[in-house]
Amino acid sequence: MSRTTSSAPESATVDPRQFKSFAEFYPFYLGEHSNVVCRRLHFIGTSLSLLFLLALFVTGDWWYLLAGLVCGYAFAWVGHFGFEKNRPASFKRPLYSFMGDWMMWRDILLGRIKLS
Description:
The protein is mainly α. About 65% of the residues lie in helices and about 0% in strands. It has helices spanning about 10, 20-30, 35-60, 65-85, 95-110. Helix 3 packs antiparallel against helix 4 (about 65-85). It comes from Comamonas guangdongensis. This is Mpo1-like protein. Keywords: Membrane, Transmembrane, Transmembrane helix.
């Protein structure tokens, strides 16, 4: 499932709202993350967000929730706008994109998606 080429021209014609299920959406989502730097930034941002969520539960300080959201989206958007050169699918499919981020994070941890 490792991808090395950009799919920006193809994705420019695909509306993420057309997908009827997450199973249909996920391959599109992975295509929107074909740049290895973008994937790395997503992985870092999601990992840090998970740490902030853990800090929220340990301390009860709700500022960690805000920090986790900001951190996760900041890393992702730098990846998309700076390296992938596309718009995040979260603008049109926020729930599926959120789910896709965690699936991609899991797939990276399991070695199904390479970061090199």
